Amino acid sequence: MLNQEQLRFLLDHKIPISSVFDATGMNKAGYQKAMEDLEKSFAYGVTPCSKAGHTLRTKAGHCIQCNVSRIAFQLRSKATAHIYIAGSYKRKLIKVGSSIDIDDRLHKLNEYKYGGVSDWSMLASAFQDKAGRIENYIHDKLKEYNVEGSYMREGKKQQCYELFRCNFDDAYKPLKAIAGKSVRLRCSSEKQAQTVYNFR
Predict the structure, then answer these.
(1) Which residues contact 37 (CB under 8 A, 6 or more apart)?
(2) Based on the domain organization, do 103 and 59 belong to the same domain?
(3) Phi, psi (5° rounding) for residue 166?
(4) What is the pLDDT of residues 44-83, one digit of tens each?
(5) Which backbone phi and psi does 196 adopt, to 5 degrees?
(6) Which of 76, 108, 132 is the last residue of a domain?
(7) Measuring CA to CA, which residue among 110, 84, 81, 38 is closest to residue 193?
(8) Which pTM was predicted?
(9) 139 and 96 in one domain?
(10) Residue 167 sits in which domain range?
(11) CB burial class (10 A; 0-12, 13-18, 19+) of residue 130?
């Protein structure tokens, strides 16, 4: 689990929480493969760095707390991506994330039972520059509704943080305010999403 120092570091450096992977108990090859599958940029719970004992690293194994220049390099590859809103009716959760391939992301969310459920539906998305920054902005708008969850990966429990018990509109309005006409509904209608995914 991320500690308060790590959470503060991620916030200070504007790193989306959805870019971070819990690699506790995994070897480097294992967490690199998992990070590729889930489009994660950074890992925590890894072997502490020799310089200061930090455990936040890039996918390649570099400590980002000792060398913050690695952060921009990692995030650049996800600079343009789909910001998406997904919903789980079963657990009454909204997820806001970003992905290069949202169809594959939806498949992985359900395959891994992200947040403990496999009924995720893709509700809306927008293909945007500075995707990480926009994702962070929406997460900040929703922080009062934030809940922690987990999922299983290769028999190990992984934490996930970018889950919210809120209404679809709570996430949709800030996305639409930024992305405008590029927002694409992926459910049958906005009204359906507002009615079905209404969790607070």
Answers:
(1) 108
(2) no
(3) -145, 180
(4) 999 999 999 999 999 888 999 999 988 887 776 567 899 9
(5) -75, -45
(6) 76
(7) 84
(8) 0.75
(9) yes
(10) 81-196
(11) middle
pLDDT tens-place string over residues 6-51: 989 998 988 888 889 999 888 888 889 888 888 888 999 999 999 9
pLDDT at 77: 58
Same domain, 58 and 151: no
Do 23 and 43 form a contact (C-beta atoms < 8 A)?
Answer: yes
The domain boundary, picked from 45, 76, 107, lies at 76
Q: In this structure, are strands 20-22 and 81-88 parallel, antiparallel, or unpaired?
A: unpaired
Q: Do residues 133 and 180 share a domain?
A: yes
CA–CA gap between residue 9 and residue 26 (Å, rounded): 23
Is pLDDT above 80 for 166? yes
The number of CA neighbours under 13 Å toward the Cβ of 114 is 26
In a shared domain, residues 87 and 50 = no
Query: Domain tally for the chain?
Result: 2
86 and 140, same domain (yes or no)? yes
Burial class (CB in 10 A: 0-12, 13-18, 19+), 72: exposed
Tens-place pLDDT, residues 99-149: 989 999 999 999 989 999 999 999 999 999 888 889 889 999 999 999 988
Please tell me whether residues 68 and 90 are part of one structural domain.
no
